[in-house]
Amino acid sequence: MEHITLLIGIVIVTALVFDFTNGFHDTANAMATTISTGALQPKIAVAMSAVLNLVGAFLSVEVAKTISGGIIDESAGIRPEVIFAGLVGAIVWNLLTWLAGLPSSSSHALFGGLIGATLVSVGTDGVHGGAVVMKVLIPAVAAPVVAGIASMAATRLTYRLARGRDERETAKGYRAGQIASAALVSLAHGTNDAQKTMGVITLALITGGVVAPHADPPLWVIASAGMAIALGTYLGGWRIIRTMGKGITDIQPPQGFAAQTGAAATILASSHLGFALSTTQVCSGSVMGSGLGRKGGVVRWSTAVRMVVAWCLTLPAAGLVSAGAALLADQGDWGVAAVAILALGICGAIWAASRRKPIDHTNVNEAEATEPPGVVTAALQTVTPPPAGTLNPAEGEEPAPAASAPRATTATAAG
């Protein structure tokens, strides 16, 4: 076995940077509804999520195997430069969607980056097309739909079970359930998303001859990936938390509990089967389902459409960025250095842009400026009833503020 070279070391560091961005990009998956309903204070919520993401990283390696030997063929001449270029594309797309407040898929950014760089450097022989279809594309379509339907049914069931009961008592119980279900989502996120970085690092070690082909991730890889995603989670992706907690629908405690429980079950099942699905898409689908499941609840379809467009663009966009990075990195050491400098410059520019309108734990739950209704929203507004303005004991729902009626059918800016 060879020693870790400088280039492999750069790839490992870049992979951990991606893992860090994955952490703060996906904090909203577990904690957006919990924070928006006030079940937990923002900083406490992200701290709990960070610890459970770290624990989840040690529970399974099935998804890591899918990344290291399932999608990309390590025997087809994959070099560390290719993996480095793929990671750069994923990081850039993650930061762009974070700046826009869009909960896009970090997983698909990684897949798109690796596939784009591999196609340019190696060709189609370096990508397992069947694995991409079966373990990436099909789950990408099915998972948010399944999670949304499950969440919608669970929301309707919870309101039916609470019918005629005291609103304040049930709210306390649902908030406790939200904390437990948010913890489960965080644990599930660690078992799925942290493993993707483990798989990338293991793939780099295999291409460099440091570990044997088809090997499990070494313990130090598992620990470092878990700590990177936990640190990113603790810092909190407040822009995306605002979009998921306030921008898709007005979430009440029963809806938050139902959405998180459905999402956790879907993610844990996929991790067990080795499906590297997007936890972002699952959780976003669950939130939309909870909005449809509450009588009088309205999904802000303008925001939802923007999210779906971002989902569709993620694979090709990250792939194109990584393909360009791979063309440059293939020129030699100066090419790798140029890619690194360009990536640092782009990331710095995105961070500087985010400082113009900062969002953090102090203002994450503040209402955003509304936009004029889009075509989809305007059409739905004519047929969708507004949120209930008063408590309906027969349905067991909480009252909605009077100002929320017009806002519920208006697109919310990502911030």
TrEMBL record:
Listed Low complexity bias regions: 399-415
Record keywords, A-Z: Membrane, Phosphate transport, Transmembrane, Transmembrane helix, Transport
Entry's localization field: Membrane
Transmembrane spans: 7-24, 44-61, 82-101, 136-159, 197-215, 221-241, 304-328, 334-353
InterPro entries for the chain: Phos_transporter
Region spans: Disordered: 383-415
Membrane topology: Multi-pass membrane protein
Coiled coil: none
Entry similarity comment: Belongs to the inorganic phosphate transporter (PiT) (TC 2.A.20) family.
Protein name (Swiss-Prot/TrEMBL): Phosphate transporter
UniProt source species: Streptomyces catenulae
